[in-house]
Amino acid sequence: xxxxxxxxxxGRLALVGSGLLGAAFGFLMVVLLVTDSAGSxxxxxxxxxxxxxVCAAVGVAIRLSTWRTDGGYPVVATVRQWLADRHVPxxxxxxxxxxxxxxxxxxxxxAMSRIVLSAVMLGLQALRxxxxxxxxxxxxxxxxxxxxxxxxxxxxxxxxPRAKAAxxxxxxxxxxxxxxxxxxxxx
Length: 187
Fold this sequence. Notes:
The chain has 187 residues and is an all-alpha fold. The protein has helices spanning 9-35, 41-69, 73-85, 94-105, 107-127, 135-179. Helices cover 79% and strands 0% of the residues. It is elongated.
């Protein structure tokens, strides 16, 4: 893919996940709009499936665009490995690794915003309980729970720890490399 570079199995799974998240979002919005206006299941399906397909494509496009912005998938995978190892190889110049880790550390505020948004959306759904028993309401509630709950869990378990690791590595590594030529991030 142009501007993204070769994608491994983990990258392909990320693309599938982005597509599924986009599809869930598209379908969820249609269910939200049509269910409240007493839409029939065939109407929900007739509008929801095309909306889900369009939003799935948008989700994949956003993921690819993010990888392009970050320097391509191989760069993203390399930074992810640095964060997992809590170590940047000595042969990588600071001009390369510092901006990449800064970008990763900056994702903390966006993750916190998404967690707050997810909590608000889940709280709003709790206000709609109990259901009137229609199948559309149960499906809608399950979709909302999965979408916003999954988003919050992803931010808490993946994005925030990576951002924290990047910030820690920057704090340790920038000072360590400025004061001496030996040593590395995480040592």
